[in-house]
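User: Okay, second chain of the day. Same drill as before: sequence in, structure tokens out.
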Amino acid sequence: MNKLKIPENHSGISKTLRLPDNVIEDVQKLADNKNLSFNRTVIALLKYSLENLDESDKKLLEKNG
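Assistant: Same drill. Structure tokens below.
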């Protein structure tokens, strides 16, 4: 299984997400334990998820991307 790599720097567009309380709590705990910002942790988790999509979902992303 691939390892999660937290990026050093990033720039981007601001978006608002509505997340369940338990997801926020878990991400915040992970961020705190790694001494990272909540935002940086979310970005790393999202990137990892996108890089490890199911093959059928990857094809959909590539088709519509």
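The radius of gyration is 13 Å.

User: Thanks, on to the next one.
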